[in-house]
Each structure stands twice: as C-alpha cells, then as structure tokens.
Amino acid sequence: MIVKREQVTEMIQAAKVRKGITWAQVADAVGLSKEWTTAACLGQMTFDEQQARVVSEIFDLPEEALAWLQAVPYKGSLPTAVPTDPLLYRWYEVVNVYGSTIKELIHEEFGDGIMSAIDFSLDIQRQEDPHGDRVHVVLSGKFLPYKKY
Questions:
Q1: 33 annotated active-site
Q2: Is 93 a catalytic residue?
Q3: CA distances (Å), 21 to each of 25, 35, 81, 103, in order?
Q4: Among 52, 85, 95, 137, which is disulfide-ready with 69 (CB 3.0 to 4.6 Å)?
C-alpha cells in the first residue's frame, strides 16, 4: 500500500537503475522536456492521467501509483536547509556568492519583483570544452512585478 508520494519516487528511482533507463528516454515517451519530466518523476510536478500512465508503464508501477503521480505535490525536496550533497551544495554556494548580484541586476533591469519558478523553464546541456566539459544551465522565468494596491 502506497501512503505517500515519496514511495512512488523511490519505486521510480529503483526501476530506473534496474532497467538502465535515462531521464531523456522517459521524457521522450512522456513528450515533455527531460528537465520537467525528471522533476515530475522525482515528485515535484504533477503528471496528467496520460503522462502518469506512460510513466507507470515505463517503470512497472502498481495501479495505485497513478493517483500519486497526478496528485499535487508538496514542493521542495531537500532533506536539509543547507544541502549536504556536493552537487546540490554547489548550487547553494552559487546562490550565496551570486544571489545578491542576480537580485541587483534583475531589479535594475526589470524593477521590483521576482523571477517566477512557476512560469519557468530549465535547460541543462553538456558543453564540450577541450579543458574539460562544462555544465550549461539556462534558467528562464517570467518576471512578476510586485503589485501595488
């Protein structure tokens, strides 16, 4: 019996390893980007019924997992406020070092507001480099000005 979404995520991760599937292959089958599909498989987005069925078939999930894949998740999956995984910690470090710069430059260009993580896209690509391949990440979020009332 599945009692929380995290159990479905664990089933997906175990099946992914067991079957040797890539997130790009899953995304192709679902018909969406590898970034959004991966986030959804990890419990951070909501699949519609058809997408849930595709994911369920790929990972051989039980029927009851379909409802969990379509449930609105509790977003935010880090186990601690400061991540301990080295890769995630580097993102935390980027925000600590460059966060005030990012904020300052967004406000200078757009005014007082935020970059949406809802009307948002993410693209992660390998950038070949003779000195060692680089991780190329593009974050694109709609600017949302603070409302005056």
A1: no
A2: yes
A3: 7, 15, 30, 38
A4: 52
